[in-house]
Amino acid sequence: MRITAYTLCSAVGEGRAATLAALRERRSGLTQNDFGSSPIPTWIGRVAGLEQQALPTELADWDCRNNRLAWRGLVADGFIEAAREARNRYGAGRVAVVVGTSTSSIGASEEAYARLDADGRYPVDLRRPIIHTPHSLGDFVQHALGLTGVSVTVATACSSSAKVFAQAERLIRTGIADAAIVGGVDTLCGSVLFGFNSLELVSPEPCRPFDVQRRGINLGEAAGFALLEKQAPSGAWLLGYGESNDAHHMSTPHPEGLGARLALSDALQRAELQPSDIDYINLHGTASQKNDEVEAKLVADLFPATTCASSTKGWTGHTLGAAGIVEAAISLLALEHQLLPGTLNLNIPDLACGPQIRRDNLQREASHALSFSFGFGGSNCVLVFGRDR
């Protein structure tokens, strides 16, 4: 399956070029938390200017922070033009939309409850049911692109916008669609910030993936999209995927990484590759205690020392349901530009880390990359990408 267009927008900038520049310069997008009326002491990956942004008039019914960021992602890198060309090529009913999110537009619902009128009803400007549903994102993207085919919103926590690649591949392979727009969007809101803080998972300082002194995650927001086509002369390859659900605990991974190992094994088998064939791994690497420990052991056990593995959460923060697409896009950038990102803020590696987990960027030839997405509830997805040749 070919990836013929892709884009991303996060705290480090809008579009592929801005993201690549931030990776090269090792410039983080994290800033001290200033979100909401009572900011908790942490750092966040905030996309600037969403409050002042407006959707096109014809899309005003979908207006909310999450869909504003989705629109910003769609228009970056000329992606919306590529999507519309695919619509013209295949037909509006033959291009599927498969997008991932964990919070959808819950921020708009929070605002509505905070502004209930005297009768206990939502304020007039927020009486738009579509923005208060889990499918708000998928519905918005489908209408924004003028598509009429299959539209699915995937919500499997942090693996959401990685699993969209797998679902889209199946839709195309079985003939239900000829192409697919995949992606993910999640934005900051009170439920996310205070919810993760209540779990004691939020770091009061910039996150430090795989470091012995890591103190937790930094939350971020992002949007990313990709166009998948079966018949295309060029573009990077989606070579394989693996999915699993270990259901070990609501917020803690299986202590032996059982589900992650199953997803990895299936992904490599589909791609017909061995661990030694992988040049770069974009790790889930949230900087939480258990996630990093389990993931580091998985990599140390299975991959040769020459493999480059890193977490890019120090650039963008943990973008939750958008993490899969953002890190898939970074993996594609790594292959396209032969730049393998290191891990920001990693000073002293955890003892569980093998030589694969790198602190510094590497400029070297790379043909195959993995992207790991391991979410709450043990929802796991591993993607395998191949360089366009």
TrEMBL record:
Keywords of the record: Transferase
Domain Ketosynthase family 3 (KS3) positions: 1-387
InterPro entries: Beta-ketoacyl_synthase, Ketoacyl_synth_AS, Ketoacyl_synth_C, Ketoacyl_synth_N, PKS_Beta-ketoAc_synthase_dom, Thiolase-like
Annotated metabolic or biological route of this protein: Lipid metabolism; fatty acid biosynthesis
SMART domains: PKS_KS
UniProt keyword Ribonucleoprotein present: no
Family label: Belongs to the thiolase-like superfamily. Beta-ketoacyl-ACP synthases family.
PANTHER family xref list: BETA-KETOACYL SYNTHASE (PTHR11712:SF320), POLYKETIDE SYNTHASE-RELATED (PTHR11712)
Name by which UniProt lists this protein: Beta-ketoacyl-[acyl-carrier-protein] synthase family protein
Organism: Steroidobacter gossypii
